[in-house]
Amino acid sequence: MNHSNHAETARLDAVAQVLRDAVKPPGGAELERGLRALRARERTRPRVALRWAAVAAVACCVALGFTVAPQALRRAGLATAPVALQRIGGGTVLEGGYLSEAGHDGVELVFNEGSRFRLSHGTRGRLREVRSDGARFDLDHGSASFQITPNVARHWAVEAGPFVVSVQGTDFTVAWEPTSERLEVRLRQGRVVVSGPVVGEDFVVRPGQALMVDLPRGKSEISVARPEMNAPDVAAPVVPPVSAPPAALPVPSAKPAAPPSASASRGTERRFRAALANGEWDRILAEVEHDGVDASLRTLSSDDLFALADAARYRRRPDLARAALLAERERFPSSSRSLDTSFLLGRVEELRAGGRPAAIKRYDEYLARAPNGTYAAEALGRKMILVKESQGPASARQIAEEYLRSFPKGSYAKAARALLEQP
Amino acid sequence: MSLSSRSRTPLALVAKPSRRDVADAELAQGLVAREDWAMGETWVRFAPMVLVLAERVLGSKPDAEDLAQEVFGRVHDKVKTLREPASLRSFVYSIAIRTLKSELRYRRLKSWLSFRDPADLVDFRHVTEDVESRDLVAKVHALLNRLSPRDKLVFVLKRVETMTVEEIAVAMDISESTVKRSLAHASQRLTRWLEADPALGQALGTQLGMRSE
Questions:
Q1: Domains located in chain B, CATH noted
Q2: pTM for this one?
Q3: Which of B45, B204, B206, B211 to mutate to test the interface with A (most CBs of A within 10 A)?
Q4: Residues A370-387: pLDDT tens digits?
Q5: CA–CA separation, A232 vs A145, rounded Å?
Q6: What is the pLDDT of residues B103-127, one digit of tens each?
Q7: How far is B98 from chain A (nearest CA, A)?
Q8: Helix and strand tally (H, E) in chain B?
Q9: Burial zone of A308 (CB within 10 Å; 0-12 exposed, 13-18 middle, 19+ buried)
Q10: Which residues are bridge partners to A98 per DSSP?
C-alpha cells in the first residue's frame, strides 16, 4: 500500500472511529422506556389484517361518502376532521417536534378539534407525533396540563421518562422530574391509564385522584387531588393520601425500577445476561479482567460464559471470545448449548486475520455434529462465503448447491444463486 | 410529601419462568403467536443493536428511538413471513437496515424541500459534554449527510459495523458489486472532502490521538 492509500485509509478509519465512539449503548432505563412505548403503540395500533380490513372498510365508506355523506354532513353541520396542530402560543415547534419557549409564560398548543396542551414555564417537551386520530407528546422535564376533547376514536399519549399516560377525553396534568425520577399525574376529569415501572401495566387514575410515583424508592401513591388545579404546579404538595380501593391498586413490582447492572448483580447466576442485553459489553469485560480472566473462565456459569464470549466478539477481542467458548465446551460438555460453541468459534475465527481456514473447520465441525441445528443454515452459508473468498468461486459452487437444496429460502440463498450463475 | 408505601399490602409473589434463555427460533414462534413475553424479550434482546446502529447512522438519539419503534412494529407485522425462525436476529437487522434506508431517503427528499439543512437541528448534546468532541461528531455527520442514502448506509455498515460485503448485500437486498461500488464511491468522496477541509482532518487526528493515549 502506498503512502496516499495509507493516509486515505487512516482518515476513513478515523471517521468510523468517531462514529463508533459517539454512540453509547442504551441503558436499562432507556430500554425500559422504549419497551413501554412499544407496548403502548402496539395496543393502539391495529394489526395488519385489521388494517387491510380497515382499508377495505374505508374504501367502501369513501364510495358511500361521495354519494350520501356530503349532503348529510351539510345538513348536520358536522365533519370529523383529522387531528392537526392549529396554533402555537408562546413558542415555536422546532424540527423533530421539540418545543422552544419564546417568553416566560410557557407554551400552548391548540389542536383543530379543541384539545390543548399547556406547558408551564421552563418545561421541556417534544410533540413527537401528530396522527389523524391523536398525538404523542414527550415530557422531558417540568409539568404540563392537557385538555383532551372526548372522542372514543382518538388516542392520545403522554410519555414522561419510562411512563406512558394513555388518554381519550380528559383533563389532567403530568409532571416529571428526571433528576429525582418522580412522576405526578393529576386528573380533573375523564380517565387516564398510566403504564410504567412500579405502577405496572394499565393503572387507571380516576377523576379527582393524583398518582405520584417515586421511582428510586419503588413506591407509588394515590391521593385526592386538590380541586384548584387549573395551572400546572409541580412542587405543590397534595393533601394527605387516601388509599385507593384495593382492586385499583397494582401489586408493587417485585423487580427493581431499572434492570440491574452487571456489577449490581455480582455473585448471582447469569449476572452478565442483562448487561449484555443492555449493551454494557465494556462493563462485562472490565469485570472479568478485574476478577482475573483465568479465574473467571473457571468459575463463571455456562450462561455467563456465552455472554462473555458475545461481549468479547462485539468488542473485537477474538482471543478472549475463543477462550470463553472453549471453557464452556470443556466445563459444560453435556449442556444443550455446547453444540453452539462450534459455530460461534467459527464466527470468532473470522474476526482474526488469516482465520478463514480455522473458521471453515469450525463450521464443518458444527455441521457434522448438528446438521439440523439452530445455526446449520448460517454455518453452511458462512462456509460458502469463506470458501469462495479463499479458494475461488469454483470451489464454492458445490457448497452453494448444497445450501440451496437444504435452505432454498435461507438468508444466503441469493448469494448461492449468484455464485451458481457465475460463468 | 409522605408516601404511603404499598409495601403494607400483603403480597404473594409468584416467579414467572424466565424466558431469557429461549432460542431465537422459539422467540420467533412466540412473536408469531403474538405472545406478550415474546415482544418484551425480542425488544430486550435486539433493541440495543438496532438503537446503536440507528444512532450511528442518523446521529440523533431521539430519532434512533423513533426508528427503533418503527422497526419493531414492522418486525411484529412481518414475523409470519420469516421462514427460518432461528434467523430472527438477521431478520430484525435487515428490517432495521431497510427502515434506515427509507428514513435516509425521506430525509434527503425533505432536505430538497426545506430551506434549512436538517443536520443543523440535530442535538448532539447527548454524545458528550466535551464541546470539541461534539463539534467533531456534528461535522462528521454533516459530511456523511452529503453522501447518498445508499452510500452512507453502506459506509457505516462496512466501516463502523464491520460487516462483510456479503452480509451488507444480503441485508440491503442489493448485489455485492453494488455494495463494492457504493463503498468505493463513498470512500472517494469522503477522502476528497476531508482533503479539502484540513482543519477537520487535523481534528480527527487529534481526537483519535487523545483517545489512543
A1: 1-113 (1.10.1740.10), 116-213 (1.10.10)
A2: 0.43
A3: B204
A4: 887 778 888 898 899 899
A5: 6
A6: 888 887 776 765 545 444 444 445 4
A7: 15
A8: 9, 0
A9: buried
A10: A126
